[in-house]
Amino acid sequence: MSRGGGGGCCPSMDLMRSEAMQLVQIIIPAEAAHLAVSHLGGLGLVQFKDLNADKSPFQRTYASQIKRCGEMSRKLRFLKEQMLKAAISTSSTQLSGTSLDIDDLEIKLGELEVELTEGNANNEKLQRTYNELVEYNVVLQKAGECFYSAQRSATEQQREMSADQPDDSSLESPLLQQEMLIDPSKQVKLGSLSGLVPKEKAMAFERILFRATRGNMLLRQEPVDETVTDPLSGEKVMKNAFVIFYSGDRAKSKIVKICDAFGANRYPFPEDTGKQLQTIQEVSGKISELKATIEIGLAQRDSILKNISSEFDHWNNMVKKEKAIYHTLNMLSLDVTKKCFVAEGWSPVFATNQIEDALLRATVDSKSQVGSIFQVLNTQESPPTYFQTNKFTSAFQEIVDAYGIAKYQEANPGVFTIVTFPFLFAIMFGDWGHGICLLVATLYLIIREKKLASQKLDDIMDMMFGGRYVILMMSIFSIYTGLIYNEFFSVPFELFAKSAYACRDPSCGDAITEGLIKARPTYPFGVDPVWYGSRSELPFLNSLKMKLSILIGVAQMNLGIFMSYFNAKFFRNAINIWYQFIPQLIFLNSLFGYLSLLIIIKWCMGSKADLYHVMIYMFLSPTDDLGENQLFPGQKLVQLVLLLLALVSVPWMLIPKPFLLKRQHDQRHQSQQYTMLQATDESVTELEEQHEDHNEEFEFGEVFVHQLIHTIEFVLGAVSNTASYLRLWALSLAHSELSSVFYEKVLVLSWGYNNIIILIIGVVIFLFATIGVLLVMETLSAFLHALRLHWVEFQNKFYEGDGYKFAPFAFASIIEEED
Questions:
Q1: pLDDT (tens digit, 9 = 90+) per residue, 759-784?
Q2: Most confidently modeled of 276-290, 580-594, 609-623?
Q3: CB–CB of 298/82 below 8 Å?
Q4: 652-686 as b/e: b if 16+ CB within 10 A
Q5: Which contiguous run of DSSP H or E holds residue 221?
Q6: How many whole angstroms separate alpha carbon 90 and alpha carbon 312?
Q7: DSSP 220
Q8: Across 154-168, 406-420, 520-534, which has the greatest mean pLDDT?
Q9: Which residues, in sequence order, are bridge partners of residue 192?
């Protein structure tokens, strides 16, 4: 088991320290290996180590089984695509009472794939034939109209020519015409082609035909009123029906090639009227038959897919689990006798009994003659970090993990983040009206969380839903700070009592405070509403919020330094306590802790001392008299002592620690050499491994430079981090002023026009500005600034964040990730 520490120095919280971990070895009989890994996957408390890292995926024991599972996954994806095309959704209720094993499932998936593939192929052929017949029917109707009109015009023309022509041929009539009328065999025979061409290509189609045949053709086109499904592409297209009359085989071959190039589908058209009617009847009959056949085929396919949909999730999970089991088995080492598997991995200490129970169940279920062996290994490896979180604490823990995973059993900032993060956000977002809006939106997500959790959400909605409890805490704290600031959409209210101040006489106006006198007890909670709208509003609120920002910042940085003490105490690191925690605490509080104390004293005394002057001249002229800036007796001596302590703490942090670390390294190295001389044969191997780990040369220069950088970073950071907390004041002021501008310049201004249309426009603009700017942009801005204050100003005092997360083999996480 890995190293531990004395846990008594810290609060006993589940999130304060990561779970105690152990490196375990499990020896499993080959016949029980599959069931054992399956039970452990259901338990989800073992992170397996890959003992075959030197082998490629194809050289491992179960490569063929993984390939088989991959093929089953492909078939399931095919079934899923078919269900999506048929608009059939998967059902979570399993209709079949009998559960298949993986071998039967493989056979069934293969049969279903073949059945659906053949059904789809037949359906495509039938659908294509149906579309061709529909087009043929359209051509018969449109081309028939063309032929009938041409035949009528030809008949009328022949009658006119017969009426005009006398019985005997005159000398004036054309000889050719006479010859054609006398000898019908000399007349030119015209061929015809009919079909459909896309409407968008009709003009180009006609031009190309004219040029290719040099005008020796006649084209008649009729637009089709409705869209037609193209047999080749299956898309609905607007088309024109055409009939082309030509003369000669050469012209016919050219026209056929042009039709193919333009995607014009050609259909035969009988010239005989009787055959035309017969063809139309035959085509209409075939269309009806094919339509009925297609509908029966689709109904059969839908029936198959509906049966699949009720089982799909179950089958999909089965295949995912099976594939994950074989992936894990490939990570185990096969014994020389090939009768048992050896597994190594990390597990929480509390899970020992559960793991042993799972292994025992696997042995019983597989009817193995030999049980599995579970034992804990000693190791110097750093264990993974595992925190047990719930749906409330997981989002806060993810905020910390985004910065870095905690080192094994170091103090977890997530415990404090649950309170400090929403509180710092609320200081910048303090308005109880806006807080109520956030609360309503969050309560909607929380009330409907079961339904929303089962749905596929977009990225932004998914992020909001995942952090719903963070937003809940942010909204509650925003209402609290809004009540302190006394702001409801920038409007103050006398919620808890009447204002403590009243006008001295009727001439007293709202815009001044000179005529105000204290008429009642001090306002009991938050800012007195009389400050808003007064001449002193901005200076008063600026001073209040700026000093609050410094107090909160110094308190949180002190908390970070104290957490470094708890870490050092837990890991029994006395050097970090004496040469890091104590000088850091002294340096920070000698300067900014003292400033915080002066702020509190000034508030209590009502003094007009200039704290800027006090802090500046504490460094520039520490021996000068403070004069009117003195807040308490002996202040000058206190400042000299604090300044001296701050100066002493810098070399205290810098110099002793590297020398003590070198001495500690030399002593450890010497003691290990003595141990090696006295070691027995059994322990030689283990001691040699430890000796190699600690026998690295101590780089004193590198350690000293690292300590120098750390010292400079802390000293400069103490100033910059304190100044960084002033963002609480700046963003709070910006939020308040923006809210005031939207209220006064939009809502109040539109109200003053006494016009209902202008008032409606003003209300709409105010709502959009409030939602878009204050509830969306300002929320995001305050969130990011609170995030920075935690990551940089707070966590850098104690949090290393160089660990790695516990990633157990768990079916639940595998199914969730792939979904």
A1: 999 999 999 999 999 999 999 999 99
A2: 580-594
A3: no
A4: bbbeebbeebeeebeeeeeeeeeeeeeeeeeeeee
A5: strand 217-223
A6: 7
A7: E
A8: 406-420
A9: 245
Least confident of 513-527, 550-564, 731-745: 513-527
* Tokens 């104690």 found at: 798
Mean pLDDT over 710-733 rounds to 95
Q: How far apart are CA 683 and CA 86, in angstroms?
A: 68
Query: Given CA atoms 592, 594, 600, 605 in this order, what sign does their dihedral have?
Result: negative
Pick the closest to residue 262 from 212, 218, 225 (CA basis): 212
Q: Return all residues near 733 (Cβ < 8 A) that are at least 6 apart.
A: 541, 542, 545
Task: Output the six-digit token pair for 188.
Answer: 């030119």
Pair 45, 348: CB distance under 8 Å: yes
Residue of 275 and 714 predicted with greater confidence: 714
The C-alpha angle with vertex 337 and arms to 332 and 341, in degrees rounded to 5, equals: 20
Q: In this structure, which long-range contacts are made by residues 762-769, counting pairs with CB atoms below 8 Å and at least 24 apart in sequence?
A: 766/742, 769/742
For residues 271 and 483, what is the distance between their CA atoms, to the nearest angstrom?
92
* Average pLDDT of the chain to the nearest whole number: 87
Closest CA to 279 of 143, 418, 434: 143
Query: Quick one: tokens of 193?
Result: 């082609």
Instruction: Give the count of beta carbons closer than 10 Å to the beta carbon of residue 301.
Output: 20
Write the CA distances from 339 to 50, 226, 326, 370, 412, integer angstroms.
Answer: 19, 72, 17, 11, 44
Q: Provide the 8-state DSSP code for 747.
A: I
Calculate the dihedral angle through the C-alpha atoms of 400, 406, 410, 415, rounding to the nearest 10 degrees. Answer: 20
371-376 long-range contacts, CB within 8 A, separation 24+: 371/29, 372/26, 372/27, 372/28, 372/29, 372/32, 372/36, 373/25, 373/26, 373/27, 374/24, 374/25, 374/26, 375/24, 375/25, 376/1, 376/22, 376/23, 376/24, 376/25, 376/352
pLDDT at 513: 53
The H or E element containing residue 103 is helix 102-164
Distances (CA, A) of 449 to 212, 446, 465, 813: 69, 5, 8, 19
In the 8-state DSSP scheme, what is residue 777?
A: I
With beta carbons less than 8 A apart as the criterion, state whether 703 and 711 touch.
no
Tell me how far apart the alpha carbons of residues 757 and 115 are, in angstroms, rounded to a whole number: 66
Segment (H or E) for 346: strand 340-348
Residue 102: how many other CB atoms lie within 10 Å: 16
| Tens digits of residue pLDDT in 528-572 | 998 887 778 888 899 999 999 999 999 999 999 999 999 999 999
